[in-house]
Fold this protein.
Amino acid sequence: EDKVVQSPLSLVVHEGDTVTLNCSYEVTNFRSLLWYKQEKKAPTFLFMLTSSGIEKKSGRLSSILDKKELFSILNITATQTGDSAVYLCAVGAGNNRKLIWGLGTSLAVNP
Amino acid sequence: ETGVTQSPTHLIKTRGQQVTLRCSSQSGHNTVSWYQQALGQGPQFIFQYYREEENGRGNFPPRFSGLQFPNYSSELNVNALELDDSALYLCASSLEGTMNTEAFFGQGTRLTVV
């Protein structure tokens, strides 16, 4: 059965800290790994990763994929209170490219 | 703004009733996927529609059904509502036919079954 596991499930940090969120997966016919940020409603797209070892970066956020070890990490440096959200990892797999989702990591950044 | 719109944004229904949720996909996208997200959980895949046909289904009973129209908009229908159907229903549009494509989400419909 396809599965995506995120860790930790929740995290509380202070502003300015650096955090690393993990996503491991076991799927058939891997296509891509996607990171989303969910605040109140719909998940907002952050990154899509398809190749190992190539870092994707957007401001203070960066992510990298390891297809040999079947995981990805999402780094957030110099965290701000606005980074507080649930960070979801999803893996595109199979012929219909459905997305298999992890449960998310709930990040709280305290001032 | 992703260009994916869902309606209604909130809905309250009684157990046993039927509901229809709607989704307009982003311009240029031909695939719509529906997800159910219960409180504190990640989204669960319900089904996907590609070119007006169901293109994959998750572990949901037949009372969850859908449609996709020629303009690629889509509906999710749920019959005989149960209390556990209360959730955020998310619609995501994407472009199939490419090897890798991100999905963009609408704002969701919050369904409460009482």
User: Anything to note?
Assistant: The two ends of chain A are 41 Å apart (CA to CA).
